[in-house]
Specification:
Number of helices: 1
Strand content: 25-35%
Structural class: alpha+beta
Order of helices and strands: EHEE
Shape: globular
Distance between the termini: 9 Å
Number of strands: 3
Largest sheet: 3 strands, antiparallel
Length: 74
Amino acid sequence: KTFQLRIEDDGPGIPEEKAREVLRRGARLDATKPGTGLGLAIVSDLIKEYGGTLGLDRSGLGGLQVTVELAAVT
């Protein structure tokens, strides 16, 4: 069994060809906003540490859809 969490927004999203890039530490797509580029990289590392997966796709709302899948605890 797995547990799946899906988060969607209606923002600008992430271009498909940049999805891998944003999972690298320090990578930022929008340098006009403050930040370090660590958020998604840390989330990705934690999910992998627990044997899960992280998916970045286009949301039906027009922005980003993030899907986290982890083994369910029973």
